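Propose amino acids for all 330 sites.
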C-alpha cells in the first residue's frame, strides 16, 4: 500500500453524525498536586464503561459540556479536568510550576487516583499536543489516541499564527490583534503580548487578553464570528487563557528540542490512533497533521474538506464521533 498519500474521507451532510446527548457528571472533585495547584476534574457517562481522558485546548482553555458529547455516554467512562491555572482549577491564571511536563504528571496522578489502568486519550488543538506528549512519555497507559487539529508547538506554527501568515488571510482581525501593541514592538508579537500579560497591573493584562482571545476567536471557524466561543468575552476566562497560552508559546511548549513530538513519534507505532483535521484550519494548519501522519503511518488520517479549526464544525463532529465509536472496539 502506498503510504505517501493520506486516505482522505469526504462525508456529505446527509450522512454526517452529530454529537451524543448531553450528560451530567456522576463524580467531581479537586486533585492535589503536591504544589500550589489543585486540579478540578469530573467523570461523566457510564461509571463501568471504557475509560477515556478528554484534554482541552489552549493551553488555558478549560473544559466545557460539549466536550463530553463526542463519546457515547452509555459506553464510555469520561474523565475531564481543567489544566493548571484555568477553569475551576486553582489558583486561577497562575503560571507557577505550569509546564507541559507538570500537566503530564497531573494526568498520571489523576489516572492513579481514579484506578484506571489504561485509557483512550482524546484531545484537540493544544489538547492534541498534550495527548501526544503524554502518549510518548507513558505509552503503556494509552489504549488509543483520538486527535483533532494537530498542533506541534513549533516555531513555524507559532510564526504563522502570531506573526506572519494567518495575518494575510484575516487582515481585519489582525489589525485588531495589533492595536494594543506599539509599532516598534510588532516585530515580535508574542514577546510584546507576554510583557503585557505578565504585567502586575490587571488592567494591562485585561486589555491584552481581550485582544489575544479575540484573534483566536475570529479565526477559529469557517462559519465566521458566530462560531466564536462565548467564553472569550468573559474577562476572567480571557486572562487565564491568554496568559497561559502565551507563557507556553514563548517557551516553545517546554519541549526539549524544537521538533520533539515528531522526533519521538516512533513511540506511538503500536498505539491505535485517529487524526482528524480541517482542510481550512487556519489556527493549526494541515501541514502539522500531515507531518504527524507521516511519522506515525499506522494512524487513521481524515481530512474534513469543509472545516476550519473548531471542534464543532459538522464534518469534524462526524469524524470524531465515528472515531470514538471505533475506539470502543479496541
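Proposal:
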Amino acid at each position: 500500500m502506498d503510504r505517501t498519500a493520506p486516505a482522505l474521507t469526504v462525508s456529505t451532510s446527509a450522512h454526517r453524525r452529530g454529537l451524543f446527548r448531553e450528560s451530567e457528571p456522576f463524580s467531581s472533585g479537586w486533585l492535589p498536586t503536591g504544589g500550589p495547584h489543585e486540579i478540578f476534574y469530573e467523570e461523566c457517562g457510564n461509571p463501568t464503561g471504557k475509560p477515556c481522558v478528554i484534554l482541552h485546548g489552549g493551553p488555558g482553555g478549560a473544559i466545557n459540556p460539549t466536550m463530553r458529547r463526542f463519546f457515547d455516554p452509555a459506553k464510555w467512562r469520561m474523565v475531564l479536568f481543567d489544566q493548571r491555572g484555568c477553569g475551576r482549577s486553582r489558583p486561577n491564571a497562575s503560571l507557577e510550576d505550569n509546564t507541559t511536563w507538570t500537566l503530564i504528571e497531573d494526568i498520571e496522578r489523576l489516572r492513579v487516583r481514579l484506578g484506571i489502568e489504561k485509557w483512550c486519550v482524546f484531545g484537540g488543538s493544544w489538547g492534541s499536543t498534550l495527548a501526544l506528549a503524554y502518549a510518548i512519555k507513558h505509552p503503556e497507559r494509552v489504549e488509543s489516541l483520538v486527535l483533532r487539529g494537530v498542533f506541534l508547538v513549533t516555531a513555524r506554527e507559532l510564526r504563522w499564527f502570531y506573526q506572519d501568515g494567518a495575518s494575510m488571510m484575516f487582515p481585519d482581525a489582525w489589525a485588531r490583534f495589533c492595536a494594543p501593541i506599539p509599532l516598534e514592538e510588532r516585530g515580535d508579537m508574542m514577546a510584546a503580548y507576554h510583557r503585557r500579560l505578565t504585567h502586575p497591573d490587571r488592567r494591562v493584562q485585561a486589555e491584552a487578553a481581550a485582544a489575544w482571545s479575540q484573534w483566536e476567536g475570529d479565526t477559529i471557524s469557517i462559519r465566521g464570528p458566530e462560531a466564536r466561543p462565548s467564553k472569550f468575552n468573559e474577562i476572567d476566562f480571557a486572562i487565564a487563557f491568554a496568559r497561559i497560552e502565551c507563557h507556553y508559546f514563548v517557551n516553545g511548549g517546554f519541549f526539549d528540542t524544537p521538533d520533539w513530538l515528531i522526533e519521538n513519534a516512533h513511540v506511538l507505532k503500536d498505539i491505535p490512533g485517529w487524526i482528524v483535521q480541517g482542510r481550512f484550519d487556519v489556527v493549526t494548519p494541515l501541514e502539522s497533521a500531515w507531518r504527524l501522519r507521516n511519522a506515525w503511518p499506522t494512524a487513521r488520517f481524515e481530512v474534513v474538506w469543509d472545516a476550519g479549526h473548531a471542534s464543532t464544525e459538522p464534518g469534524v463532529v462526524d469524524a470524531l464521533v465515528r472515531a470514538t465509536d471505533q475506539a470502543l472496539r479496541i
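DSSP finds eleven helices and eight strands in the chain. The radius of gyration is 19 Å.
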